Amino acid sequence: MTQLLSGKTALVTGSSRGIGRAIAQRLAAEGATVVVTARSYEPSQSLRWGSSAALPGTIGETVELIETAGGHAIGMAADLENSVERDNLVQRVVDSTGRLDILVNNAGFADYSVIEDMSLDTFDRTVEHYLRVPFVLSKAVLPHMRQQGAGWIVNIGSVTGVAPVRPYREYNKTSGDVVYASMKAALHRFTQGIAAEVLDANIAVNCVGPSTAVRTPGAAQLIPDSFPTEPVEYLAETVLAMCHRPAAERTGLVAFSLHYPWSAQLPVHSLDGATVLPPLEPPATANPNILPLGL
């Protein structure tokens, strides 16, 4: 382990399980103090298609995984749909740790539905999670990063936010991901725009998404069995790559987790940083509109 992030504090939203947990583990393995946050300390409820189901994973479990591996983590519950909790989260982190160097906007809400059948509540919650929340948290963290002289923001994007292949695949006709994908496309553009605004303050803003999909507890219901998936370690490593270079060297990228390491010849490690994993080439079925080193 290179301890690239020694002395730095990172906030990873939605890190009680899945992609967020993996990112939190990888950043902690490189020496960051990671603030693990989710809606509550209890297991989350997934509300989809009018029914609710408990999902595995808690803040405490992620903290324990990090600390057992020798890292340092702090648990902090915050409901990002609650404006008071959302607006105060960054200040709570700074008050607790004294600084905030890295913000990873990972938390989300996905309830796929074709447009004709989608409720306004589902539409509003999707917009809230993928546009309002990154805006509010980024706006709150920027003054602290400016004062520190550096900072890194990483938004978690999606291959669905890239223009779909033509002729349209059956997935695009039936998946119901249009609103989700539209918000991810907006998040990609938000990333590129804010990167320009804060470049001269040495604040890097990048976006990382799976090249295919990661079959997490929260996303498993939305991914067809036949859809190609990938190990989460490649995404976590790509996020790490966006969290330590000066902004002048790496900012404004929308990078994808198999394409970027493969093209940049970036070694990918296990989440504890101890083992180098084999290079993994993007599959032939990946969206051809993805650029190897990022959009």
From TrEMBL:
Residue stretches making up the Ketoreductase domain:
8-211
Q: Does the keyword tRNA processing apply?
A: no
Matching entries from Pfam families are given as:
adh_short (PF00106)
Alphabetically, the GO molecular function entries are: 3-oxoacyl-[acyl-carrier-protein] reductase (NADPH) activity
- What's the catalysed reaction? a (3R)-hydroxyacyl-[ACP] + NADP(+) = a 3-oxoacyl-[ACP] + NADPH + H(+)
Query: Per the similarity annotation, which family is this?
Result: Belongs to the short-chain dehydrogenases/reductases (SDR) family.
Name the UniProt record assigns to this protein: 3-oxoacyl-[acyl-carrier-protein] reductase MabA
- Lineage of source species: Bacteria, Bacillati, Actinomycetota, Actinomycetes, Mycobacteriales
